[in-house]
Amino acid sequence: MKSNTFQSLKATNLRLSFSISPLTKWILTILVLGIGIAVIAYSYTQEQSKNHQLQDQVDKASATLVDNNLKMRDLEGQLADANLSLAEMQARRPPEDRQHQRRARAEVVLDDAPRDAGAAGDGVGSRPVEPLLEDALD
Fold first, then answer.
1. What separation in angstroms does the CA of 122 have from each of 104, 106, 114, 115, 126?
2. pLDDT at residue 109 tops 90
3. Distance between CA atoms of 48 and 82, rounded to whole angstroms?
4. Can you tell me the mean pLDDT for 84-100?
């Protein structure tokens, strides 16, 4: 019996030492809610700040993209004009400028006519060869 009485006294002491008035409970509840709202407001403000920074970066990247796209179109136009000018210049160039450069080669003068003239053309490449007049007189 002694132990039951001791336990009930202990429970009563605990209850008495932790008993809080209703006004204190309301004050603590409002304080906890206020702290929670302040934390949420601070977090929201931080996220809004990050959102604005990201939006500024996206706007800047969009402007750069538009500028680069305009520059690219301008450069493509300049390239097309240059290609057209090059084609016109090549069309106006005289035909003799388009021939291969001829190689000079010494010509051997024979006393008698050869029996077999051989294949016509250049021994080194496939271009025609012009004899040098000075070499022919030697």
1. 10, 12, 18, 19, 6
2. no
3. 51
4. 75
User: What is the rounded CA–CA span in Å between residue 29 and residue 25?
Assistant: 6
State the average pLDDT for the chain: 78
Report, as an integer, the average pLDDT of 31-49.
97
Segment (H or E) for 64: helix 22-92
Distance CA 98, CA 101 (A): 9
Nearest Cα neighbor of 100 from 124, 136, 75, 70 is 124
Question: What are the tokens at 105?
Answer: 């080669």
Number of H helices, E strands in the chain: 3, 2
Q: Which residue has the tokens 């949420």?
A: 40
User: Which residues are 104's β-sheet partners?
Assistant: 130
Q: What is the pTM of this model?
A: 0.41
